[in-house]
Design goal:
Length: 266
């Protein structure tokens, strides 16, 4: 089920602000966050997700921001686009934020910086949830967090979704990056980007420092014919490429190719 385009546009621009302002249990800041989600969420989520789901997501996201050492330094636009959203790609919409907050907030609280927290959580999350990479045993590439936890295996995409959600649950700006095909035609890959004042990359479930991964050299060799995209929740003029669902175009994207070329080995 989906709304006709004119009706959906009317809802986004005229009715959504009324619904948000009518909820007197949210602070003005939280109302702004809820309005951002409603204005940018995919049309199918408008139909299937309950308002209570969104409200809990908003409250917990702001709560985590108030509890981590770096929370006050996160710009509003980064928080809205890369911490607050309840989903990243086309994965099943799991209600993960409260669960992940309780599982991982202590690791974040005891980390002095975002970088320290990311490196610690990139190991802790997958050990705690007993999820590892396996290209053949995972049921599907675009698993939601709980689907990966149930299967105990995930693709690079499933691992990246899981890590991104875990980081977001404790106030760390995170998004997914991917390339549809490497320049040497060796396949596609998905990983995670985090923000600590600028964007860095990390392979999900990899024991490396930021901006160092098995694909560093390959990513530095990309060009306009093999672009790297990062996800956005806010609408853009680009669509994120999903090799497992090439006909789906509803995930907004940013072209971040240039940020990887700077790592080219000379």
């Amino acid at each position: 089920m989906s709304f006709p385009a004119p009706i959906f546009i009317f809802f986004i621009f005229f009715l959504a602000p009324v619904i948000v302002s009518a909820d007197q249990n949210l602070s003005p800041q939280q109302q702004e966050g809820l309005a951002f989600l409603i204005a940018n969420m995919p049309s199918q989520d408008q139909v299937t997700l309950k308002k209570s789901f969104l409200i809990e997501d908003v409250r917990l996201a702001y709560q985590a921001m108030n509890e981590v050492p770096w929370g006050k330094a996160i710009p509003k636009e980064i928080f809205l686009n890369d911490i607050l959203p309840y989903a990243i790609l086309n994965e099943r919409r799991d209600n993960w934020r409260k669960d992940f907050y309780h599982r991982f907030i202590q690791v974040a609280r005891t980390s002095k910086t975002i970088d320290q927290a990311v490196i610690a959580l990139n190991k802790y999350v997958f050990d705690a949830l007993d999820v590892s990479y396996n290209a053949t045993k995972r049921p599907k590439p675009d698993q939601s967090p709980y689907e990966s936890m149930q299967a105990h295996y995930a693709s690079c995409t499933g691992l990246s979704i899981l890590l991104t959600d875990a980081l977001r649950s404790v106030g760390i700006p995170a998004r997914i990056a991917a390339i549809a095909m490497w320049p040497d035609d060796s396949g596609n890959h998905t990983w995670v980007e985090i923000w600590d004042g600028q964007w860095h990359y990390v392979g999900a479930s990899e024991s490396t420092s930021l901006d160092h991964a098995w694909f560093t050299i390959k990513a530095s060799q990309t060009d306009a014919r093999h672009p790297i995209y990062a996800t956005s929740f806010k609408k853009t003029f680009l669509s994120f490429p999903m090799r497992w669902a090439p006909d789906l175009k509803f995930v907004p994207a940013l072209d971040v190719t240039e940020s990887y070329i700077r790592f080219k080995v000379k």
